[in-house]
Amino acid sequence: MEVILKEKDAADWVYRGEGAANLVLAYIGSSPAFIGKVMRVRKSPRNGSQVIKSSTSLTAHERLLWKDVDGLISSSNKEMTGQLFVQQVMKPLLGSKYVDPGTCVLVSREFLESIEKNVICQRPAWRVDTAQVDAHCDSVLLLSDHSLFPHGSLQADLCISVEIKPKCGFLPLSRFISEGTAVKRRITRFQMHQVLKLHQGKISNLSEYNPLDLFSGSKERIHKAIKDLFTTPQNNFRVFLNGSLIFGALGGGATNTNFLIAKAFEDALKPVIQAGDGLRTENFLNLVALGVHKSGVLDRLLEVQKLDNVDIEGAIHAYYDITCQQCMVCGELSEEQARRYASIHSASLDDSLKMVRDYLIAATAKDCSLMICFRPRDQGDSGSVYNNVYLEASKQTFDFKVYFIDLDLKPLNKMEEYYELDKEIVNCYRQMVKMDQGRDKATNLPASNTAY
Fold first, then answer.
1. pLDDT for 51-95, tens place per residue?
2. Dihedrals phi, psi of 273, to nearest 5 degrees
């Protein structure tokens, strides 16, 4: 029987967080069908424009791009398209045990309007100003709550989970990267983007986090990455205790971890980490690092990210070929510079489609999150179906499970936006380096070579 959520059901769903495109709500009601579930609700821009419902969720060029994916081009709405993309594309690439495609559930307009009213006070003001619940949707995506272990009731076992946005874990080596942007080959995208965000006032401090540490496979470097994320969480690190947020921000970037935040988190760990005051946080961060290392899932993620082997500076040319447009990038280059991209423009349509398709799949992998959920194992209990790690300092064994979340299909029409953002990130970083070198020169100091 098809379930349709109506206005009266809205009170059972509470705000869990949000990203650029969706709200995430957690279920607090008593229906067995929804216990242990979260819901993703699409947002729409709050600009007063009328939303026009399309007969299909994909454009004509996107249908060409994804024509080989079963059911994707014929799906009737964005929720179904997104679910099929995760099921048919990302799940085989990342591993079926680490990916939950979810299911689509029908909803009424009144349900969505009630959700909008109920959560508006919990959302960050800047998120509210930007977007609202898209009341024109007729379905939402229902997923297991991966901040919890599966359980038949709300009284689940004690568990603590960490949500990490790993970001891009490699330095691009594409031959299509121009001389003017060659800095991308030695400084990570995340670190350069930090400089732009600081310049724009979106963050107050540069993060010390380096994705190359997290993806390194080294226990020591992974531990350093986790500590750096804890120090400057922004929107890349959150912790939940029994499904409730105890560290980080729900809908946007968190402030740097000061003494008060660190003390509150240390206290919140008392039920989970068996250690004295001042030792629990360090033990917990070590536990997370052990789980990341033992799971090996970042190796899988890195493989998918590396499907982008041409960089946006190559993929943008294939995009213009697919969409039968004059290449705007080549139009801004000299004849000699444009020659670098001649091989792309002379490629077959199938090759161009693969280039862009792989770029967009990789973009999803660079922007997804990793959810790692731990629960203390009782002494003498050896019957768990889950992987486990032993935390030497506290003499505790923890079951853990890992899932990738936020595996959204990236729109084809964002390609130009990706290209422009890439240029903006590199230009801002290069200007910062020039300013640093100028200051160093003025004070007769060696030029800084710090990788921000």
1. 444 445 899 999 999 999 988 988 878 889 999 999 999 999 999
2. -105, 120
- Reading the block at residue 176, the tokens are 């299509």
Supply the Cα-derived Rg of the chain in whole angstroms: 23
Contacts of 269 (CB under 8 A, 6+ apart): 160, 280, 281, 284
Mark 393-413 as b/e (b = at least 16 C-beta within 10 Å).
Answer: ebebbbbbbbbbbbbbbbebe
Q: Which residues contact 312 (CB under 8 A, 6 or more apart)?
A: 359, 415, 418, 419, 422
CA separation (Å) from 384 to 151, 264, 272?
Answer: 14, 31, 18
| CA dist., res. 260 & res. 276, Å (int) | 18
Length of the chain: 452
Closest by CA position to 398, among listed 299, 250, 274, 249: 274
Q: For the chain, what is the largest distance between any 2 Cα atoms, rounded to a whole number of angstroms?
A: 76
Distance from C-alpha of 405 to C-alpha of 100, rounded to nearest angstrom: 8
Angle formed at CA 262 by CA 159 and CA 219, multiple of 5 degrees: 65
136 three-class SS: coil
Provide CB contacts within 8 A for 79, sequence distance 6+: 42, 104, 137, 139, 140, 141
* 135 phi and psi angles, rounded to 5 deg: -70, -5
Report angle CA 178, 183, 186 to the nearest 5 degrees.
125
- Rounded distance, CA 169 to CA 393, Å? 30
Residue 370's CB is within 10 A of a number of other CB atoms, namely 23
Over residues 83-101, the pLDDT tens digits come to 999 999 999 999 999 999 9
How much is the pLDDT for 20?
Answer: 81
Q: pLDDT: is 441 or 243 the higher one? A: 243
The answer to whether 140 and 104 are in contact (CB under 8 A) is yes
Q: How many Å apart are CA 15 and CA 247, to the nearest integer?
A: 16
Contacts of 242 (CB under 8 A, 6+ apart): 148, 156, 158, 159, 160
Cα separation values, 245 from 17, 162, 163, 262, 266, Å: 10, 10, 10, 14, 14
Helix-strand-coil split of the chain, %, nearest 5: 45, 15, 40
Q: Which of 187, 439, 180 is nearest to 447 (CA)?
A: 439
Bridge partners of residue 42, in order along the sequence:
22
